[in-house]
Amino acid sequence: MSLPTLHVAVLMGGWSSERPVSLMSGEGVAKALESKGHKVTRIDMDPEVALRLAETKPDVVFNALHGAPGEDGTVQGMMDLMGLTYTHSGLATSVIAIDKELTKQALVPHGIPMPGGRVVKCAEIHERDPLPRPYVLKPVNEGSSVGVAIVTDEGNYGNPVSPQAKGPWQEFDELLAEPYIRGRELTTAVIGGPKTGERALLVTELKPKSGFYDFDSKYTDGMTEHVCPAEIPDEIAQACKDLALRSHQLLGCRGTSRADFRWDDTQGIEGLFLLEVNTQPGMTPLSLVPEQARACGMEYPELVEAIIAEALADRQAGVK
Questions:
Q1: What are phi and psi of 40, to 5 degrees?
Q2: Are 8 and 41 in contact (CB under 8 A)?
Q3: Which residues form the ATP-grasp domain (predicted)?
Q4: Residue 218's pLDDT band (boundaries 50, 70, 90)?
Q5: What is the pLDDT of residue 2?
Q6: Which of 50-59, 199-208, 279-288 has the lowest mean pLDDT?
Q7: What is the arithmetic mean of pLDDT over 61-77?
Q8: Share of the chain above pLDDT 90, in %
Q9: Nearest to 303, CA basis, from 191, 200, 196
Q10: Has 124 been annotated as catalytic?
């Protein structure tokens, strides 16, 4: 694939809890584009971002933001109004995919297996457990395992959960409570969109040394072993790829996405559950999408250009 020389604005940073990751993703993307001869303008998002984009007049915006407001449809809506071409998913998809409860409502009716559970007010969990233990509490619309707590009988959160115990209930008014699924952490990347064709790449198994794949495990070198491709039965690997691709298509994702799974290997295929779909997965040196692409023979600069090619194809087709 060969792109014409472009002026690309790389949108990164912002003010979400994932700002440091976004800055790493954005810098990696910018350097890759420069290595391919493209002109790059780096934009660390602030409240004047619309003015800065208007002044920059890029051919395309590479959206390297993670978390709100860059991943929840807010920035996408702004760029739609400005008539800008941008990478990754559009407004409607972003609104749904960042919200774990809306994602379930969109996917489960189509046969995508996801954990049960419900959204609970934090005041409620300090009175009684919302689900039988063990269960997981997580923010409804945060990524990178930000604010996730696993509540067990042996844990130190108290019974019921104490308001004084350090956890996501101190930062959010409500949380998603889900049954804890024992087993293995798997993830699958999908690249492309309707105009260029979508394909699932590989399955990676994540083995965090801390026992839980949290924010630090994701972004600290040496804290998580990546087994790529995962050493799992062919049936499970194919199921992960099929479910990731179907979820990407059902949600209307573009450019790239990453589907995260838990697999209880004592239950076979019945133990596989999709946890969430990330519409703007990380592009840092430790990120999973570049790693899977590389294992499939696509180096980092080519991956970045492929994501941009999808955005340009959508513009030509009038897709938003």
A1: -125, 135
A2: yes
A3: 104-309
A4: very low
A5: 73
A6: 279-288
A7: 95
A8: 80
A9: 191
A10: no
∠ Cα 176 178 181 (to 5°): 145
Is 299 within any annotated ligand binding site? no
| Topology alike, domains 7-88 and 96-113+182-317 | no
Q: Answer yes or no: is pLDDT of 215 > 80.
A: no
Considering the chain, what is the average pLDDT of its residues?
A: 91
Which pLDDT belongs to residue 1? 55
CA distance 178 to 114: 10
- Catalytic residue among 22, 94, 217, 287, which? 287
Token pair belonging to 22: 């976004």
Architecture of domain 96-113+182-317 in this structure? 2-Layer Sandwich (3.30)
Q: Is 17 a catalytic residue?
A: no
Of the candidates 148, 155, 144, the one whose C-alpha atom is nearest the C-alpha of residue 172 is: 148
Whether residue 185 is annotated as binding a ligand: the answer is no
Nearest by Cα to 67 from 127, 138, 124, 14: 14
118-179, CATH topology level: Dna Ligase; domain 1 (3.30.1490)
Q: Out of 16, 144, 145, 257, which one is annotated catalytic?
A: 144
List the end-to-end C-alpha distance of the chain, in Å, as a whole number.
23
The closest alpha carbon to 247, from 273, 282, 211, belongs to 273
pTM: 0.90
Contact call for residues 281 and 287 (beta carbons, < 8 A):
yes
- Look at the block and give the residue holding tokens 């919200």: 99
Q: Residue 143 has what pLDDT? A: 54
Please give the average per-residue pLDDT across 283-304, as a whole number.
Answer: 93
For residue 236, give both structure tokens. Answer: 């499970």
Q: Which class is 7-88 in CATH? A: alpha beta
Query: 287 an active-site residue?
Result: yes
Neighbour order of strands in the sheet with 118-121: 118-121, 174-179, 135-138, 149-151
Q: Is 278 annotated as a binding residue?
A: yes
Domain chopping of the chain, boundaries: 7-88, 96-113+182-317, 118-179
Cβ atoms 179, 117 nearer than 8 A: yes
